[in-house]
Amino acid sequence: MALFTGTVVIDLEETDSTNNYALNLLREKQPFEGTVVRTFRQTLGRGQRNKHWESEDFSNLTFSIIFYPAFLSVSRQFQLSKAIALGVADFVKTILKTENVKIKWPNDIYVGDKKIAGMLIENTVNGNKISSSVAGIGLNVNQEKFSPDIPNPVSLKMMVGNNLDLENCFQQLCVALETRYMQLKTGKENLIDEQYHKTLYGLNEQREFIIENKNVNAQIIGVDELGRLKLYKNGGSINVYDLNQVIFKI
Ligand code: BTN
Question: How many whole angstroms separate alpha carbon 165 and alpha carbon 101?
Fold first, then answer.
């Protein structure tokens, strides 16, 4: 069991979004660090770029963890995103017994060319520090059929061929996440950065992107300290992009 992550779990029969619930909780009080808000029936899950996160009832993990990373200044907030993404990737690698688990920038978890998990991290800032963070994680565990609108989904079950115990997965995932969070908290930022890049989907590869409504071929050079994607366009220069400036074509 993890030391603090998931030792308090608020289990909700149904909720719109566990991130919303956790953010509201933080407005009222200061829950114990590592408190998890979890549901197996999320009706309006939120994803990045204002997208919806779809998850079949009782099939997957959808939960949010409350952290207080006061050790992180606002300009270093992407470090937390890296640590959480690595934690989820570590867990998926352990279950699937493969290294072919990657982080697609900024923090989608991919197995091969398919997405198995996503996360939405919402920080509250106090002065120059991150006073609280809600790390919302959606991991496809036992779902096998997805809406055709979801481009390239996959689940653990689709990879291993059998159902997995959700509680078991949750406990193991909490340990993996806490391990990475503690690495960050104890100053192992270089290790996190190095492993994030090692796990980065498409690193050094020539890929297709949509930038300002145009198809662009570029090489992924890495991710800068602010979490922006660094791309090298043929014969051109290296440019950095925010999430809302570039779409990855898979
Ligand atoms: C993405 O891939 O765009 C991010 C998906 C994040 C989904 C999780 S599910 C639990 C938590 N609650 C939400 O409303 N969203 C996150």
Answer: 21
